[in-house]
Amino acid sequence: MKTGIWLIGARGSIATVTMAGHAAVVRGLAPMTGFVSNREVFNGADLPPLEGFIFGGHELRRMSLKEVTSATLDACGVRRYPRAFEAELDAKLDAIDEDIRPGIALRVGPQVDSVANDIRAVATEREAIDAVRLDLDAFKAKHGLRRLVMINLASTEPSVSPKASWTSLAALEAALTANESGLPSSSLYAYAALAGGDAYINFTPSLGSRLPALEELALTRGAVHGGSDGKTGETLIKSVLAELFARRNLEILSWFGQNILGNEDGRVLDDPTHKATKIRSKDHLLPKILGYAPQTRVGIDYVESLGEWKIAWDHIHFAGFLGGRMSMQFTWSGCDSLLAAPLVLDLARFTALAQRREERGLLTALSSFFKDPMGVDEQRLVAQDEELVRWALGEPR
Amino acid sequence: MKTGIWLIGARGSIATVTMAGHAAVVRGLAPMTGFVSNREVFNGADLPPLEGFIFGGHELRRMSLKEVTSATLDACGVRRYPRAFEAELDAKLDAIDEDIRPGIALRVGPQVDSVANDIRAVATEREAIDAVRLDLDAFKAKHGLRRLVMINLASTEPSVSPKASWTSLAALEAALTANESGLPSSSLYAYAALAGGDAYINFTPSLGSRLPALEELALTRGAVHGGSDGKTGETLIKSVLAELFARRNLEILSWFGQNILGNEDGRVLDDPTHKATKIRSKDHLLPKILGYAPQTRVGIDYVESLGEWKIAWDHIHFAGFLGGRMSMQFTWSGCDSLLAAPLVLDLARFTALAQRREERGLLTALSSFFKDPMGVDEQRLVAQDEELVRWALGEPR
Amino acid sequence: MKTGIWLIGARGSIATVTMAGHAAVVRGLAPMTGFVSNREVFNGADLPPLEGFIFGGHELRRMSLKEVTSATLDACGVRRYPRAFEAELDAKLDAIDEDIRPGIALRVGPQVDSVANDIRAVATEREAIDAVRLDLDAFKAKHGLRRLVMINLASTEPSVSPKASWTSLAALEAALTANESGLPSSSLYAYAALAGGDAYINFTPSLGSRLPALEELALTRGAVHGGSDGKTGETLIKSVLAELFARRNLEILSWFGQNILGNEDGRVLDDPTHKATKIRSKDHLLPKILGYAPQTRVGIDYVESLGEWKIAWDHIHFAGFLGGRMSMQFTWSGCDSLLAAPLVLDLARFTALAQRREERGLLTALSSFFKDPMGVDEQRLVAQDEELVRWALGEPR
Amino acid sequence: MKTGIWLIGARGSIATVTMAGHAAVVRGLAPMTGFVSNREVFNGADLPPLEGFIFGGHELRRMSLKEVTSATLDACGVRRYPRAFEAELDAKLDAIDEDIRPGIALRVGPQVDSVANDIRAVATEREAIDAVRLDLDAFKAKHGLRRLVMINLASTEPSVSPKASWTSLAALEAALTANESGLPSSSLYAYAALAGGDAYINFTPSLGSRLPALEELALTRGAVHGGSDGKTGETLIKSVLAELFARRNLEILSWFGQNILGNEDGRVLDDPTHKATKIRSKDHLLPKILGYAPQTRVGIDYVESLGEWKIAWDHIHFAGFLGGRMSMQFTWSGCDSLLAAPLVLDLARFTALAQRREERGLLTALSSFFKDPMGVDEQRLVAQDEELVRWALGEPR
């Protein structure tokens, strides 16, 4: 059975690695390294196979998908396939390119505005939603899909202040009709997906479906959603180290983390209006794991020469017995897209499983994938992961 | 009720911080930072309070306990107490010094031989055991103790080849009678403790009670034992990071760890005959957690200027999706004695709990404390710790 | 012969270590580790000995000098002296405390304003200068000093925009008379010192004597001055590593540096108005050494738990042959006051030498001590240091 | 005019990057990044251009030069050239392959013996020399070369104990005639080159020309030689940092360096008989720069997954004023072959310059290129480099 995967930011780094990697795996040219869903423990979960995935999406930049894919893989230093496959991959990407539509660009922030050149012209919020919904329906019809999973991989939007109209579906509908919902694109996309019974997964820290009105919409239409902000690197490490310090009852005095990165994501985050959204997402989990709030700082800076690479340096200052002050430092050097892409495909598989099971509303079982999981207090990776296993295998909590 | 704590290596760095720290905690001058047993979850476990602890031990070096304690605390940069308490602490340590006896020194290795100057003269293995046992009985009688917990904090012994006589108690008894058991001091101490129904905990990678004959002895005499090799720093971090990589299905290509340290422990480990024992203990857990065996190396070098400090540098090389090669590095900078001392006191509390419950034989529930836990395959810290919680609270597995 | 050392920020961390360390060296209790002037090569330079130094200064905070000194030394983990010397040191510091006067506080920035509680009340810029000058003259008279060396160790001031009136002494005098020079305190102090023929050395990135009018004043009055911003840690390392990359013709792609620190200096720099001044000083030397301008960033963040310690992490991304991309990272972990204090005393010695030689105007030979040396393009440490040697020994260039 | 470059270890990583990189530079496809000789200061030195270089060499392993070159470039992550050039490069390498002869393999050590499969069969030391000399003469004749520069890039040989016969040319000749000189292959190669008036440069820590008898031979035959052990990474950094600490009079307490690497060089060095030679070379410069001998350690370990990459971690422990203990750490992550290849070509250019100037004997001016420069005490990079400049420009010292 086929599963539609609809990517917002479909020509961005993560999306390109997701689609190229998917093709390589399906052709048996790459192992499923980095896939949570490929662990033996999930053998009994009857997850949908990658073979049935069909890709489409929205994007704000006019570019050749196969060219940006090739550039991204090069920048990640990934070894190239046999020449025969390169041609096959290019053909596949060209075909997907046909299913990538101009995106909507409401409140996406100055750094995205400055590069967007393929925008769907819409006059109102409601028009934006309708345009997106039409694209989704056309894609489903073309490929004979019953449902799809929309996954937000677009650049981080600036934060927006919550509005009263977000707290119930009725209020939101009224606000949309008045074109004054204040929702950013990520949430309009979410609305469009959920309204049609499709799933919405937010891999970014943008607002997305994080408002009561959209949870209500999901429940009403029998749709599922989840997020937010994929946990791929520094925060992932942080989440297991913080648990270690907690279990050993060592006192964190301060935790300073600095990220430098060079891709489009980094360029956008270099703007303070975009950065604030990201930092909030990265910086909240320590107090939840530790039970107290040491001084923390998270820095993100754009260092262009790094290209697709992200380097993080964390300095952890802690006290032990008799107040003795000690420290741990780590550096993480990763290619974000390579780390994120398998998780995107994992999320698609688990979400499709939830769809098949006719679940509805927020998928809290996916918390291990996210820096800031909606509706979940548990921030410790091991516990989150075990919850995922239980849920996927249909075991009682 | 009083609990006797008998430390092998009683004037070593860990022992001194254990005793000084205990005194400070009991007087309300230091919080229980770094104590596992002080976590809220153990409130229901009815652990013996620190107030009832009485210390004694064996040691091979003639030194003033209060002087080495003061030097160790200084080297760890620990802030000093009010002057009034310093005098009180010195008096306490002088009193404990009275209960520290000359140790036995069979097969302790060249680096220990070279500094030992306070050795109990014994002609045979059996005499060594008897001498130790007499010291323990005298201590118990003097302080009115029913049982005690012996904890091995002595320098790492060279490895010894297993002997057939170690596989059963009967065979071991015969070998001891013939003075050809080949057991190192750590095991003779363990024999002496267990034979009298007392507990033996091995905080070092030396052989200790890790032989079937001594497990049989423990079961026979109603004694408990546990070990081995306290997990305080680099290996502790390794155990949680390895689980992270496993749960994310990232492939570890190689894991290189280098430790530099400057105290007596480091001086002894600098000798290859001693070092091999330690490295084996530090280097075995990755394959167990990962399910495959990447190339690993653990280096230990003595850098005298570091004094009580240990610095570890680990380089983790891993592959992600599409074979992309990434890396993580960490440095750990800790004062080993400050990290170990609360765990020693934790072990004393949990072991005393087992004694009160009339348990016997190997205490596998203590695995989270050890680099190389006897009788336990589980090497993941979180699972080990949760097992400790279950056991301590008397919950079913 | 006696030399007066007048410290601005006389109860700050650097000043306290300078004075306590001076006392310890003079009493033979501490070696001259960290002193440039103590290198054998300077034996022939006839530098004034430390024994003749007499300290005084200005400060904006009312505190006990001996108490803050003791706290600073503790925070740096410096080993304490014999008890006998502690009493002697306290007495010395109490005596110096008598010679510390309330400072002036014009344009010192919000973070300094918020803690200043011992301010000399003045109505105009001219009054501020006169008040300072009176304090200096009183100190010289009291101790029978012919000249003194004022050294600015105060918190970094916010940057100020240059004014036309700064370009000549005549224009500046007019502006001062009109009370509209716009000069920050650091420059008013410099004016006061130079006007009386005394030396002014700026160990901070504040404006100080960096304006043509004050150079003119120095030349007119036969005074010397130098600065600015003591080069003690990250920038020092940067200056030698950058030269290495230049000599090996490797191409720096980006250089990212992050500093975290916990003392009063860090607290002040955490405010953006103060921080900008510092970052400009730290970030300009790479293009001068390399001959081209790679992307650079310097971050400074306040991490309170670090106290007197500063940790810097630098990530250097470079290209080698065939465009191969490689990297170097370093972490620097230092106690700034311990690194700065001997340089302050060095600067006092070299400046006093210049005074004895009747030099006047800017002392460019001191460039090796500064992050942003006035009047000097050469940023390579070795060349700067060799210039210092030549000058000190009176050799031709 | 053409210059012959004869590489020992001609199919090793450094040699392949040297030859491929040379081809790319000559065709204008790669800039001269990493070349010392390309710095502007050498414009006046009239160095021989790369265009005239002709390559040949000896090698012990039968392999396709173009295939190992391609694998090495891939492993270094170097971006590939236009496809048109790849074919041209392959043709060039095939042509060079014709000029690579089976090497001699006396005392090359167990790790080299185990992979050598293309050995020139010789019965005696003298036969080995003659065989090499014949190859050199044939190469010169074929390409019409007056002189050549032999550069040793072969795997590090085990150390050998000096013999009395090495101290004079006469004694050495007698020992060679008796086939009991005890010289390793690196020295036999050096003899063969120098005997014919050709130059010998030792880029490895093997013995090479480091014996009085060979200096005598060079002087007699009008040949030049230099070495040893190319300074490409960790030691290079060490040499400038150590000078920094010396100029700031900070006291190094200990300096620990650990290298991990994954190529053939690493595989060979993993054997203790080979490793000792290397470590001696890396570990001697600190005392010379500092003027005292802190505790130092240099570790080298083979971590296969790293391939061509070398990671070094150094921990520098130092004392500042008042005995305050601080530290600096650095990690260096480089592709050794990319760093070494331009230096090999630099050495060829500078050596050819010396030949043109009819110099003879040891070229001490090349010290900046070597970890353990023969005949030179100066270990500080800046001073060494300035000496190179002076010599190259023909300026007086």
Task: Characterize the structure shown.
- The structure is a homotetramer of 397-residue chains.
- Chain A has 397 residues and is of the alpha/beta class.
- The first copy, chain A, has two domains: 3-230 and 338-392, NAD(P)-binding Rossmann-like Domain (Rossmann fold), CATH 3.40.50; 234-335, Dihydrodipicolinate Reductase, domain 2 (2-Layer Sandwich), CATH 3.30.360.
- Chain A is 41% helix and 18% strand.
- Chain A has a seven-stranded parallel sheet with strand order 3-2-1-4-5-6-11, sandwiched between helices. A four-stranded mixed sheet of chain A has the order 8-7-9-10.
- The longest helix of chain A has 21 residues, at 336-356.
- Chains A and B meet through helix 1, helix 9, strand 10, helix 13 and helix 14 of A and helix 1, helix 9, strand 10, helix 13 and helix 14 of B.
- Strand 10 (325-335) of chain A pairs antiparallel with strand 10 of chain B.
Keywords:
homotetramer, 11 strands, 7-stranded parallel beta sheet, Rossmann fold, 397 residues, 4-stranded mixed beta sheet, 41% helix, globular, Dihydrodipicolinate Reductase, domain 2, 14 helices, alpha/beta
Proportion of beta-strand residues of chain A: 15-25%
The interface involving the most residues is between: A-B, 55 and 55 residues
Structural domains of chain A: how many: 2
User: For the record, what is the CATH homologous superfamily label of the largest domain in chain A?
Assistant: NAD(P)-binding Rossmann-like Domain
Counting DSSP E segments of at least 2 residues, the number of strands of chain A comes to 11
Arrangement of strands in the largest sheet of chain A: 3-2-1-4-5-6-11
The biggest sheet of chain A amounts to: 7 strands, parallel
Examine the secondary-structure arrangement and name the CATH architecture of the largest domain in chain A: 3-Layer(aba) Sandwich
- In the CATH hierarchy, what is the class of the largest domain in chain A? Alpha Beta
Low-confidence stretches of chain A: none
Enumerate how many helices of chain A there are, as a single number. 14
Average pLDDT of chain A works out at 95
Structural class of chain A: alpha/beta
Quaternary structure: homotetramer
Helix content bin of chain A: 40-55%
